[in-house]
Amino acid sequence: MEIRVLRYFLEAAREGSMTRAAERLHVTQPTLSKQIKELENELGKQLFHRGSTSISLTEEGMILRKRAEDLLAIADKIENEFRSLDEITGGIVSIGCAESKLIKYLARAVKNLNVTYPQIQFRITSGDTSQVAEKLENGVLDLAFIVEPPDLSRYNYIEIPEEDIWGVYMPQDCPLAEKSSVTIEDLLPYPVMCSEQALRADIPRWGGELTEKLNVVANFNLANNGLVFVREGVGIALGFEGLVETTDNTTLTFRPLEPQLTTKMYGIWKKYQVFTPVACLLAKEVRKVMGYPVD
């Protein structure tokens, strides 16, 4: 299975048309069709449903698309790593991030590096711990920032020197907005939205057995998507303080949980990982802005 053919496959999947994909790849349509057919024969599976004017992925094709995207990201990453070995004039650092205001430390490190190395590019992927950890394991990411204690058997880590504070985002006219803080009992009458990771790892630490009685109407991985649902009146959302502005000029209000619930953030990378020069620069700069010693 060739990298070039996987690129052909992905372009065809994105375009939904052999003709348009061939034009974008600067090859003839018969050449592209032949390469895709040979890939299907190699895998022993049909990858596309073919219509008169369009194509669509089969179930097997959708599986390959996800794998191919990761494989090509790794291939591109390897090329960038070798281009940056001799002299650091640029390069790409790939980072996975949870949604948290504590990402400000990463932002400060990126800003500082851009002053000296303006050609370095930063590819940042947002997601929960399982999503970014999978990409870290697959070699797609150089490092990740997660809001769950890391697996010390697999990762080295650095602890962010602050904590996220949990609370409830709600419309300003919600009765809970009249309270200075919110208890688990306060939440029981309301439709609640929260990430699956939080319901598994965080909220039970605070709500105990009553957590199972919450009326959870939706789960989300990206908090800002959940807050759109709050604005539209679907329910109230559990999340970290500071994800969005909640001033008098906005439609949302934030109230902390009682008793207080906090979560730590960690920067992680695989054990025995050899950083590229540009990733090493970022790792050192992150330590510096956090006030940790730098080797």
Could you describe the 3D structure shown?
- It holds the Pfam family HTH_1.
- Keywords: DNA-binding, Transcription, Transcription regulation.
- This is DNA-binding transcriptional regulator, LysR family.
- One of its GO terms (molecular function) is DNA-binding transcription factor activity.
- Belongs to the LysR transcriptional regulatory family.
- With 295 residues, this protein is α/β, with parallel strands linked by helices.
- The protein has three domains: 3-75, Arc Repressor Mutant, subunit A; 79-161 and 264-290, D-Maltodextrin-Binding Protein, domain 2; 163-262, D-Maltodextrin-Binding Protein, domain 2, CATH 3.40.190.
- Helices cover 41% and strands 23% of the residues.
- It is built from eleven helices and eleven strands.
- Strands 3, 4, 5, 6, 7, 8, 9, 10 and 11 form a nine-stranded mixed beta sheet that branches. Strands 1-2 form a two-stranded antiparallel sheet.
- It is globular, with a radius of gyration of 23 Å.
- The model has no long low-confidence stretch (mean pLDDT 89).
The CATH first-level class of the largest domain comes to Alpha Beta
Helix content: 40-55%
Q: Which outline best applies?
A: globular
Strand proportion, as a percent range, falls in 15-25%
Under the CATH scheme, the architecture of the largest domain is 3-Layer(aba) Sandwich
Named CATH topology of the largest domain: D-Maltodextrin-Binding Protein, domain 2
The arrangement of helices and strands along the chain is HHHEEHEHEHEEHEHHEHEEEH
Return the structural class: alpha/beta
Stretches with pLDDT under 50, minimum 5 residues: none
How many domains comprise the coordinates? 3
CATH superfamily of the largest domain: Periplasmic binding protein-like II
Overall pLDDT, averaged? 89
Please provide the count of β strands. 11
The main pleated sheet reads as:
9 strands, mixed
Instruction: Give the N-to-C terminal Cα separation.
Output: 42 Å
Count of separate DSSP helical elements: 11
Radius of gyration: 23 Å
Organism: Lachnospira pectinoschiza
GO cellular component, one term: cytosol
GO molecular function: DNA binding; DNA-binding transcription factor activity
Keywords: DNA-binding, Transcription, Transcription regulation
